[in-house]
Design a protein that fits this description.
Strand order of the largest sheet: 1-2
Radius of gyration: 11 Å
Helix content: 10-25%
Order of helices and strands: EHE
Oligomer: single chain
Structural class: alpha+beta
Number of strands: 2
Number of domains: 1
């Protein structure tokens, strides 16, 4: 994957309580150079 597509972009992260939580996705986005402006973990029932 080309990391350049994440660099200098802003992201809103919605994680799933029964799947991948928001903070885990946010850390991956930060590692790829993106800026997380909102991260949350929700329950989609």
């Amino acid at each position: 994957m080309d990391k350049a597509i994440f660099k200098d972009k802003k992201f809103c992260i919605l994680g799933d309580r029964d799947g991948i939580p928001g903070p885990a996705i946010a850390e991956c986005v930060k590692d790829l150079g993106g800026e997380v402006v909102f991260a949350s973990t929700e329950c989609f029932v």
